[in-house]
Amino acid sequence: MDLQTQESLSVKMAGNQGSLTDAQKKDLETALPLWKIVMRQFLEHKMAVVSLGVILFFVLVAFSADLIAKGLGLDSNRQNVSARYLLPFSRTEIPNDAKESSIETWISENPEKSQALSKALIDKQILMSQRPADEILFELGTKPQTEALQLFEKISQPEFVSFKKMLENFGSFHLFGTDEVGRDVFIRLIYGTRVSMGVGVMVAVASALVGLFIGSLAGFYGGIIDTLLMRVTDSLLSLPLVPVLIVVAAIDLQKLPALKSLMNPENESIVKMFLILCLFSWMTVARLVRGSILSLREREFVLAARTLGARDRTIIFSHMFPNVIAPMLVAITLGVGQSILFEAALSFLGLGIMPPTPSWGNMLNNAQEVIYKNVWLTILPGIMIWLTTISFNFVGDGLQDAVDPKSIRR
Amino acid sequence: MSTYILRRLIQTVLVIIILSYVCFYIMTLMPGDPVELMIQSNPKITSADVERLRALYGLDQPAYKRYGTWVNTILGGDLGYSRTYRVPVEELMIPRLKNTFILSLLSLLLSLAIALPLGIYSALNPGGRFDSIVNFFAFSGISIPSFWMALMLIIVFAVQLGVLPAGGTETVGLNSENFFNFVKDRGTYLILPILSLSVQQIGSFIRYARSAMMETLRNDYIRTAKAKGLERKVIIWRHAFRNALIPLITILALSFSGLFSGALLTETVFAYQGVGKLVYDSIIANDYNVAMISFIISVSMVLLMNLLADILYGFADPRITFS
C-alpha cells in the first residue's frame, strides 16, 4: 500500500472514527502478499514498465520470426547480387534470366494451364506480342513486377493462382534495405532478435543457476569450501572480460574432444558462445547468493528447521532459496543486457556467432567497410542492441527498487 | 595490514601464474600452430621436415613441458620475437603501453569531469525532471555497445562531416620537430576514441555517484545536520559529499586498473595502436609470443591495480580493517 492511500485512509478514519465501511475494514485487515507489493512498486517505475513492454514486443517478434518471414515472402539468406546496399524503403526485382527460368519450370509443370493462359492473354488482347505466341508468358513475366501484376489482374481466373504467386515472388519490398550481398536487412534483424536475445536470456539464466549452486555451497558450508570457491570467484571477477573472452573465443573447440559430441556445424558457434559467456558470468550471482545465505544461516527459521531434523538439502532448497530468488531475478535481468552486449562485441570482431546465422553483432561484422556504402547497415543493428540492452537494464533497475525493502515507500 | 597485503600479493601472483598457464594451453588449442603455417607457405615440405620442425620447436612435447621452457626463457629476460612485425616483443610493447595509457587516462578524466557533477546534482532531487533525463542518459551510456558508438562517431565526424580522421594514431610521415604540431596531430586522432570510450564510463560513473550520494543523504547525521538548521550548501558539501566520496574512490581506483589493459574494442575500431589492439591482432594473426606477453601484461596490470585500489581504500576509509 503506498503512502497516499494510507494517508487518505487515516484522514478518513480521523473524520469518522468507529464508522468504517466493510470494504475499508477488509482493506485494513488483509495483508498484501509479497508479489503484489513488489508489483505495485515496480509499476511506479515508469521507464521499467515501458521497457518491459519493449522486451515483450521483441520476444513476440523473436517467436514469430518464421511467421513474419513466410507472411512477407522474405528469406533471411536469399542473396541478390544485383541489389546490394539498397537504402531503406526500396523495391527490388530478381534478374530477368532468373524470372525466365522460373517461368520455364512453371510451364513444364503445368503444360495445360500455360496453354490456356497464353490463349487467354492473346484473346483478351492484353499483350500485343511481337514475339511468337508461345513466348507471351515470358513477355508478361519479365515486365516490371507491378505492371505484370496489373496486366495479370485483368484475367483473374482462379486456376492461374500459382502463376500469380510466382509473379509476386519476382520482386520484394525492403523496409530496411539490403546488405552487402543483397539480403533483406529487415528479416535478418528479426532473425537476429531470436539469436541475440536467445543467447542473452539463456546465458543469464544458466549462469545464474551456476552462481546459485556455487554461492549456496560456499555460503552454507563455509570453511575450506567457502575459501576455495570464493578465491576462484574473486580471481575470475578481477579479470578484464573483453580480452579474456576474445582469447577463449579464439579456441577451436573441435580440439576439445569432450565437447565435440555436443554440437553440429550448424549451431556450433551459438553453443560455443553460450558456453564461453556462461563461464565468465556466474560470479556476481555466486557472490550475491553466498552473501544472503551467510546471513540466512544465522536466522531463527533455519535454526528451527535444523532442530526439527531437516536435512541440509531441505534447508537449502525450501527455506533458503525462496529468500534469494528476488535478488537473483534482478541479477538475471541485468545479466541479459550484459550478455547481449558481449555477444554483440564478440560477433562484431568475428569471433562470435558465425554467418550465415544472423545476429545483431555479426550484422555489424564488416560495418567498417560498409559505412561508406550504406550507413543504415551499421545504424539499425546497433539501435536494436541498444534498445534491448537499455530495456533489460531499466527492468532490472525497476525490479531492484521493487524488491529492495529499503526503497519500498510505505 | 602487512599480512593482508602479503596475502593479497601472493594470491595475485598465483592468479597470474595460473592464468598464464591457461592462456598458454589455450594458445595450443587455437587453430594452426607455427609449423602448420610453415606447411601452408611451403607446399614442398616433406613429412620428415615437419617431424624435425616440430621437434625443433618442441611442439611434440606435452603442453606443461613447453610451458616450463617458455617461462624459463621469459624469466631469462627474453620475451621472444614477433612473427608478424619481425621485432622483439618488448620493442613492440612499450610504445603500445604508452599509447593506451594516454587514451585511457584522458577518457577517464573526461568521464569524471562530466559524470560526477551530473550524478551528485541528480541525487539531490531524485525523481525530478533533471534526474530522469540524467538517468536516461546514464542508462543509455551503459547500454550502448562501445564499438557501435565508435562507428557512429566515425560516421558523423569522419564520413559525413570529414573533420576528424576515421582511425589511426598519428599522421604517417609527419616528422614534426615542433612539439605543438606533434600534440595537435596526436590530439585529432585521440578525440573520437576518447569520446567513444567515455560514453560507457560516464554512464556508470553517474549511476555510482548518484547512488553513493543518495545513500549518504539517508544517514542519520544528515538529519542531525538539518535539524541543527545548517545551510543546505554546508550539509551537501561538508557532510554528504565528503562521505559519498568513499565509495567513489573505490570505483575510481577500479577504473585505474583499465589504464594499461587497453580498450580492446575501441582501439580496434579506430585502429589505434594500443595494447588492446595488439592483443586482438596477435591472436587473430597467430602471433603467439606477442599474444601471450601482451595478454599477460594487460591482465597483470588489472590485477595489480585492483590490489592497489583495495589498499588505498583502506587509507581512505578508516572504518575498514584488513582482516
Question: How is this fold's topology laid out?
Answer:
The complex is a heterodimer of chains A (410) and B (323).
Chain A: H1 3-15, H2 22-29, H3 34-44, H4 46-63, H5 65-72, E1 90-93, H6 96-109, H7 111-123, H8 136-141, H9 145-153, H10 161-169, E2 171-174, H11 185-221, H12 223-238, H13 241-249, H14 257-260, H15 268-279, H16 283-297, H17 300-307, H18 312-348, H19 360-363, H20 367-370, H21 376-403
Helix pairs in contact in A: 3-21, 4-11, 4-21, 5-11, 6-7, 11-12, 11-15, 11-16, 11-18, 11-21, 12-16, 16-18, 17-18, 18-21
Chain B: H1 2-29, H2 34-41, H3 47-57, H4 63-75, H5 89-124, H6 129-143, H7 146-160, H8 179-217, H9 220-227, H10 232-256, H11 264-269, H12 275-284, H13 288-316
Summarize the entry for a quick read:
The complex is a heterodimer of chains A (410) and B (323). Chain A has 410 residues and is mostly helical. Chain A has helices spanning 3-15, 22-29, 34-44, 46-63, 65-72, 96-109, 111-123, 136-141, 145-153, 161-169, 185-221, 223-238, 241-249, 257-260, 268-279, 283-297, 300-307, 312-348, 360-363, 367-370, 376-403; strands at residues 90-93, 171-174.
Can you walk through the features of this model?
The complex is a heterodimer of chains A (410) and B (323). Chain A is an all-alpha fold and 410 residues long. Helices cover 69% and strands 2% of the residues of chain A. Chain A has helices at residues 3-15, 22-29, 34-44, 46-63, 65-72, 96-109, 111-123, 136-141, 145-153, 161-169, 185-221, 223-238, 241-249, 257-260, 268-279, 283-297, 300-307, 312-348, 360-363, 367-370, 376-403, and strands at 90-93, 171-174. Chain A has a two-stranded antiparallel sheet with strand order 1-2. Chain A is elongated, with a radius of gyration of 31 Å. Residues 11-15 of chain A have low confidence and may be disordered. Chain B is mainly α and 323 residues long. In chain B, 75% of the residues lie in helices and 0% in strands. Chain B is built from 13 helices and no strands. In chain B, helix 5 packs antiparallel against helix 6 and helix 6 (129-143) crosses helix 8 (179-217). The longest helix of chain B has 39 residues, at 179-217. The radius of gyration of chain B is 25 Å and the shape is globular. Chain B starts with a helix and ends in a 7-residue tail after the last helix. Classes of the chains: A mainly alpha (410), B mainly alpha (323). At the A-B interface, helix 12, helix 13, helix 18 and helix 21 of A face helix 1, helix 6, helix 7, helix 11 and helix 12 of B.
